[in-house]
From TrEMBL:
Pfam families: ABC_membrane, ABC_tran. GO terms for molecular function: ABC-type oligopeptide transporter activity; ATP binding; ATP hydrolysis activity. This is ABC transporter ATP-binding protein. It is found in: Cell membrane. GO terms for cellular component: plasma membrane. Residues 342-574 form the ABC transporter domain. PANTHER family: ATP-BINDING CASSETTE SUB-FAMILY B MEMBER 10, MITOCHONDRIAL, ATP-DEPENDENT PERMEASE MDL1, MITOCHONDRIAL. The lineage of its organism: Bacteria, Candidatus Macinerneyibacteriota, Candidatus Mcinerneyibacteria, Candidatus Mcinerneyibacteriales, Candidatus Mcinerneyibacteriaceae. It comes from Candidatus Mcinerneyibacterium aminivorans. It is a multi-pass membrane protein. The keyword Transmembrane helix applies.
Length: 578
């Protein structure tokens, strides 16, 4: 119990700190406007009481009209404050969601790539959308909601006591029954809502997975298998959804029954008091009319408490990410570096306690093409990932050396590394936006780059040219066209180090050869590192580095290695000698 209280306190402190910093002015405004609306509504039953009594006592028409007009005026003013109070309350709720989603997404972008390697993308998406939706709303409105409903409850109780203490005490009997039923059923609803949400996430993931693999499904003609699997997952969600719906309806009808029966009991008892002469007709009607206001803040406070409990595990998940150390993304701006070297010293890398790379030592400088050669699993891509900084070595260092200075990890130098992988991501933007991203480049420069990667003729043949939208993840392009757009995106930044990891694997061999020749011609003062399973791509590299089981076994050009390196000979013979 103490542990649960500590968790709530810890969570509430964080929420209060963020709320105070980002939403305080809006929260105060919401509380003030809603409080005015509550106070105006509290005046209404007293005027209604006098209005009915004046009619019953056959008062002059002037008094009846005066009180009646005052009631109309108060109703209009109250509705105006109520509208703005609710509007600002809902707006604050949306702003809270937006704030937390941006904060979490921005922080995720700063986390190291290794974090994403260990986690499912669907789970991360759920935290950004679902958890932030509820937690962000709670963060922005929980404090105003608590204060407003406490004020509302105090005003309602005060007004009912002033109207008639006896009727209020009778009413109190129904309140704990109402709260007890509401709290019990609400707990059940929360449980089934959580279960339903998890099942719905599985439905969403199933849809995403099937759409992503639609080509395979069609190719293997397993439409019925995919449909039956989807129906099975959907049925599990439907069963939880129906149970949740049952408890929601039970809660609504049972609490509504109490809300309907209590005023009727009050009318009966109030009628007896009128007959006895201890209460006037206006007082009973005013009490009866205002009584419904008692249940609303009581219900809201129970929901507030339940919402707080529900938010705690979400807060743990969201704050768990926000508290993770982000990468230092402060990039070093260095211009006009000509005499530099990329040095890799005594590099080891472990994956699941297995050495993937062992004692790698390299000195690489600008000018020429380096080809990384090796069988699948030799460690080529891992070495590239280490150079980029996606992952960190277990042992050893990677640094740039220039002007007697050392910069650990080249990724810290702005635009120093350009990377293009086999299946890099493209956005469903235009070709122009996919190439330029957040920069503005001249059309002359873009055209030059598109010619280098041999796709200019295709782009200009399109109806909208470079402004053509390419669809989700480049769905409107072939694999080869998409790879050339990715190459253009990387080359336009004019990086000092160009890393190509199977970057031309889907491009026709003839076009690929021309692209590599163009890159070598236009970027001859850069360091170009190429990984390709097609030896024809890197056969004419200035230098080849052969990896086997995570170790460098040979270095040299093709002519040297074909004579002296058995591993290279083996790889060459597999592709060229049948």
């Amino acid at each position: 119990m103490d542990f649960a209280i500590m968790k709530i306190r810890k969570y509430f402190k964080k929420v209060f700190r963020i709320s105070k910093k980002h939403f305080l002015k809006d929260q105060v405004l919401v509380i003030i406007i809603n409080s005015i609306s509550i106070l105006i509504a509290g005046i209404f039953p007293f005027l209604l009481k006098d209005f009915i009594n004046e009619i019953q006592n056959e008062a002059v028409k002037y008094e009846i009209i005066k009180i009646g007009l005052l009631l109309v005026l108060l109703s209009l003013i109250n509705r105006s404050f109520s509208f703005w109070g609710n509007y600002l309350f809902q707006k604050l709720s949306v702003m809270g969601k937006k704030f937390l989603q941006i904060k979490l997404f921005s922080h995720l972008l700063k986390l190291p790539y290794k974090y994403f390697m260990k986690r499912k993308k669907g789970v991360i998406s759920s935290k950004i959308l679902s958890d932030c939706d509820i937690l962000g709303q709670s963060m922005a409105i929980s404090i105003p909601m608590l204060i407003i409903n406490v004020i509302h409850l105090v005003v309602v109780i005060t007004v009912l006591i002033i109207l008639n203490v006896k009727l209020f005490l009778i009413t109190l009997v129904s309140v704990p029954i109402y709260i007890g039923i509401f709290k019990y059923l609400n707990k059940k609803i929360r449980e089934y809502q959580m279960q339903e949400r998890k099942k719905y996430e599985q439905v969403s993931e199933s849809i995403r997975e099937n759409l992503a693999g639609i080509k395979m499904i069609k190719g293997h003609k397993i439409e019925d298998f995919a449909k039956n699997n989807f129906i099975s997952i959907l049925n599990k969600w439907v069963r939880k959804s129906i149970k949740n719906l049952k408890f929601q309806l039970l809660q609504r009808d049972s609490t509504t029954a109490i809300m309907n029966v209590t005023p009727i009991i009050i009318l009966i008892i109030g009628g007896l008091y009128i007959i006895e002469g201890s209460l006037n007709f206006g007082g009973v009607i005013a009490f009866y009319t205002y009584l419904g206001s008692l249940f609303s803040p009581a219900q809201n406070l129970v929901e507030w408490n339940n919402g707080l409990q529900q938010s705690i595990p979400m807060a743990q998940r969201v704050f768990g990410i926000l508290e993770k150390d982000s990468q230092n993304n402060n990039l070093i701006e260095i211009t006009d570096i000509t005499n530099w070297k990329l040095k890799i010293k005594n590099l080891d890398y472990l994956y699941k306690n297995k050495k993937v790379l062992k004692n790698i030592n390299l000195n690489l400088s600008s000018g020429g093409i380096i080809g990384l050669v090796g069988a699948s699993g030799a460690g080529k891509t891992t070495l590239i990932d280490l150079i980029i900084g996606f992952i960190k070595p277990k042992k050893g260092n990677i640094y740039i050396e220039y002007d007697n200075k050392k910069v650990k990890f080249p990724k810290k130098i702005k635009n120093f590394i350009g990377y293009c992988g086999q299946r890099d991501f493209v956005f469903q933007f235009s070709i122009y936006k996919n190439i330029c991203l957040n920069k503005d480049y001249s059309m002359k420069k873009i055209k030059k780059i598109l010619k280098i990667v041999k796709i200019w003729n295709f782009v200009r043949s399109l109806e909208n040219g470079i402004e053509t939208k390419i669809g989700e993840n480049g769905a409107k392009l072939s694999g080869g066209q998409k790879q050339r757009i990715l190459l253009a995106r990387m080359l336009i930044k004019n990086p000092q180090i160009i890393l190509l990891d199977e970057a031309t694997s889907m491009i026709d061999t003839r076009i690929e050869t021309k692209i590599i020749q163009n890159i070598k011609k236009h970027y001859n003062n850069k360091l170009i590192v190429i990984i390709s399973h097609r030896l024809s791509t890197i056969l004419h590299s200035d230098r080849l580095i052969v990896l086997k089981n995570g170790e460098i076994v040979c270095k040299g050009n093709h002519h040297k290695l074909i004579k002296n390196c058995s591993e290279y000979q083996h790889l060459y013979e597999k592709q060229y000698i049948k």
